[in-house]
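## retry 2 of 3
previous attempt timed out at serialization; input unchanged, resubmitting
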Amino acid sequence: MRILSSLVVAALAIAAPAALAQSNYPTKPIKFIVPFAAGSATDTVARVVGDYVSKDLKQPVVVENAAGGSGVIAAQKVAQAEPDGYTLLISTNTTHAANQSMLKKLPYDAVKDFETVTLLGTIPMALVVHPSVPAKNVKELIAYAKANPGKLSFGAGSSSSRIGVEMFKVMTGTDIVHVPYKSNPQAVTDLLGGQVQLMIADVSTTLPQAAAGKVKALGVSTKGPSPVAPGLPTIASEGVPGYEITAWFAAWLPAKTNAAIADTLQKSMAAAVADKEIVAKLMAAGIEPKSSSRKELADFVASETEKWAKVVKAAGIEPE
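## retry succeeded, writing output
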């Protein structure tokens, strides 16, 4: 009995610090890992939500950009991080839905290597072209592309952007050359310089350039008119019936993170995207705030992975 009692006391002694650490969480800065460059829509979500979480949980939130590899670098980094609640992935359908069909081999498992936290928002994409492209609308762009096969090129720094144009090509019977980038802001830089002629990317990345007259915005990727892209016609209504693609954002923790810690972060981040000031900031950036329970996000990711697999197949994209 003495031996058994000693073992129980020892076990409690080991468990006590862990339980105390969880109940006191957080006690140090939290890191948000973003798979895309500064200036991307995902980066905007991370920084805006991070400011709220920092104030709410009374600890600094540091945003770290780990761009490249279609989000693989950042996702793998978080998957391999210590599951203590201090490293989160703020990512999109690229790492947790599209990559499963776009890439032949992934160094992470989007389900087994992560704990879900919450959905953070959705964002439509816009079709924009360099001013040198002689097209004032989608129909004229299609006609020009058909008359000049292989002459136009498009930049893509995320799976969403890549699939967005590949779908457009398949549905319009056009030949437009793909030029890969580490992140969409880099692709935009080359679009402004004329190195590539068009993009389909999130509205927060593209529409400010259109407003400044540096590119021409021809259409939005949603099924119907979008409140974050007022006045911009849908690609579907402009000559590509049935065209629709929307990106989304969410947060994940490394697998085996304590459920209480994950719940704390879910509550804080869900409160962030419901806050009036945060909503205004995100909407101004073209992002429609949206939260979910941890279970809802898990179910959503499963359905989105299946959906994007169908999209990739329909677009005729061969896994790389």
